[in-house]
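FAQ

Q: What does a record look like?
A: Structure on top, sequence underneath. For example:
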């Protein structure tokens, strides 16, 4: 079992916030699986995100990789609060009360909206606490089963790059979460981060997070209990995969260019295909999107390793208590083991879930083959 502040996660495997954790049925299936230790919702906004046909996902054929153009959930936060209340107040099949945590992934464009969202989640937690007036060692306070994850890193929102690539822009939102935590230190808060590509970014994130440590009830606390590393890598391009034909409909030897394709010094540079005229070339209609799965795995491992080392060596004991949920290419039991070796306390997956359904977690446990 891994304890992340008030959340007990056993087994130490979760889904990451993704399109396959969008509605009640999907959340229910994830919750009922004995191979998940906690469930994380798809990222909710206050009013819901407007989706259209351009928001989709493509799964690679040769590897367990994916590319998606999804934004946030089309369901508003209020829906998730209803669904989570139902899940956490409905006895399990054996009649026992629910004990598995649910983490609500949220995002907001302004601190004011984020404040209202956090207040609504706290109202849910109070409602859950009121539903069980006699918590015991075996039946925990249900309010402690609900956590918050701020998604700071979706790469697919037009004209809104992930704020955590410039961490100081995120500070007003972190101020909101910090205030909520110090008003109620039973609240578990995590941050979903993007893939960082150079060392100064890791140092910067840790430095800013450290500023939120306070002495609280005779001990030093930090409001941020975990980091989820990483979200998908944005601005990636995959071509549509078809092993039988190429997009032109003609056969070609992939090992040898044709005479027409031979370049000379006078050959002008090729023009990239237009997404409006040749959409079938690309895996996504956008055509750029966020890359996940096997293709992201080495970058995700590097992010987990870098944060784990910085946190473990930090002089502040509150910072050393921050845990890491390793996400990115967790597509097999071996990949999950690599994440843990890199420093993750918990591992999470999305691409494998999209490919296999909840059976993905049996695969990660080594009880099924992909």
């Amino acid at each position: 079992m891994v304890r992340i502040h008030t959340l007990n996660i056993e087994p130490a495997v979760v889904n990451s916030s993704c399109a396959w954790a969008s509605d009640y049925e999907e959340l229910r299936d994830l919750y009922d699986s004995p191979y998940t230790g906690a469930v994380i919702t798809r990222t909710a906004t206050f009013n819901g995100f407007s989706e259209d046909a351009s928001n989709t996902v493509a799964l690679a054929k040769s590897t367990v990789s994916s590319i998606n153009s999804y934004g946030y959930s089309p369901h508003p936060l209020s829906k998730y609060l209803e669904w989570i209340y139902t899940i956490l107040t409905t006895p399990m099949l054996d009649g026992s009360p629910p004990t598995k945590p649910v983490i609500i992934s949220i995002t907001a464009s302004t601190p004011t909206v984020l404040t209202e969202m956090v207040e609504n989640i706290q109202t849910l937690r109070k409602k859950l606490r009121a539903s069980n007036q006699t918590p015991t060692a075996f039946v925990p306070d249900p309010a402690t089963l609900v956590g918050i994850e701020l998604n700071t890193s979706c790469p697919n929102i037009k004209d809104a790059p992930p704020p955590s690539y410039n961490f100081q822009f995120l500070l007003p939102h972190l101020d909101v979460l910090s205030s909520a935590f110090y008003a109620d230190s039973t609240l578990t808060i995590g941050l979903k981060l993007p893939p960082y590509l150079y060392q100064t970014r890791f140092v910067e994130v840790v430095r800013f997070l450290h500023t939120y440590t306070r002495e609280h009830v005779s001990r030093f606390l930090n409001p941020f209990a975990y980091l989820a590393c990483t979200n998908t890598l944005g601005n990636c391009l995959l071509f549509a995969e078809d092993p039988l034909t190429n997009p032109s409909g003609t056969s070609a030897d992939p090992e040898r260019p044709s005479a027409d394709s031979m370049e000379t010094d006078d050959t002008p540079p090729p023009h990239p295909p237009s997404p409006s005229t040749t959409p079938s070339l690309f895996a996504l209609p956008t055509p750029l999107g966020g890359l996940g799965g096997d293709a992201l795995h080495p970058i995700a491992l590097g992010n987990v390793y870098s944060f784990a080392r910085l946190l473990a060596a930090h002089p502040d004991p509150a910072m050393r208590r921050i845990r890491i949920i390793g996400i990115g290419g967790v597509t097999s039991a071996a990949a999950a083991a690599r994440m843990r070796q890199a420093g993750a306390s918990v591992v999470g997956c999305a691409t494998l879930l999209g490919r296999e359904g909840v059976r993905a977690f049996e695969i990660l446990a080594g009880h099924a083959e992909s």
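Q: Is there anything notable about this one?
A: The domain at 2-52+71-235+293-364 is CATH 3.20.20.70 (TIM Barrel).
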